[in-house]
What we know:
It holds the Pfam family Lactamase_B. The chain has 272 residues and is mainly β. It has one domain (2-29, 56-199, 235-266): Ribonuclease Z/Hydroxyacylglutathione hydrolase-like (Metallo-beta-lactamase, Chain A, 4-Layer Sandwich). The chain has helices at 91-98, 115-118, 204-207, 221-235, and strands spanning 2-6, 10-15, 18-30, 35-36, 57-67, 72-75, 107-109, 135-139, 157-160, 164-165, 170-174, 183-189, 192-197, 214-215, 240-244, 252-258, 261-266. Strands 1-2-3-5-6-7-8-9 form an 8-stranded mixed sheet, with helices on one face. Strands 10-11-12-13-15-16-17 form a 7-stranded mixed sheet. Strands 4-14 form a two-stranded antiparallel sheet. The two termini are 22 Å apart.
Amino acid sequence: MRLISSGQHHATFEFGDLRVISLRDGYIDMPPTRLRGEDGRTLDELPAAVPLAGDNLRLSVNAFFVTDGTRSVLIDTGASNAWHDPTMGLIYDAFDEAGIDRAHVTDVAITHKHEDHVSGLITPDGSEAFTELERVWIGAGDTSVFTGRLEPIRDRVVPVSEKVAINDWITAVPTPGHTPGHTVYDVRSGTGHLLVWGDTVHVPTVQFDQPNVSWELDGNQSQARAARAALLEQLTQPHHFVAGAHLDSPGIARVTPSGDGYALEYLAPSIG
């Protein structure tokens, strides 16, 4: 995995015979009280290494475009103007900056149903963001989101209820817990695996070192905790990388064991 270009809103990586482009949708500030210990209570205190924006945690919001030069898949879509506008909804600027024509997006893979991951399918003016869209992959437990502003997309939804190949180099892997349909996408190239997740980790400066710390909005905290533990262990294998929706943009890193937890090594400096 090698960084080959970057800008204010994007970073492009060479990953074997694939290109992975991180697209920055923006950020959201959330209170530290969202973090939960194993007993379900808020943490007594934050680790000293956790940066705050005022009194809040600042979470990056990222999406990822993966292409082999012929076919492409967009994983997550950002928030458009559905949530915390104007600090999010920058993904369309990121597409332009990266030189990606949105008309080339035929497949979108959604990690889960929350607004900052799925709402970018529809632009602020109410039109479809991807005019040639053919399929939207999403966990079967999360398909109820396709109502209201997302109703026009409903006829192209492909529910994922078990591990399934999207194409020759991406497999959808159900990882329920944060939501019933939370899904991780395993991107394979000739040089390794990239696991693209949504809300497996919200606060990287806490949850890698203390993976048992969960998030208030995890629908099933024990299930989300178990899914995170399994994925983190998988990521310690050679030639494995992670791309996270809420890792610091551009959000692509290596994971190694460290004490009772894990260490995160970003492959590029933070954007924004």
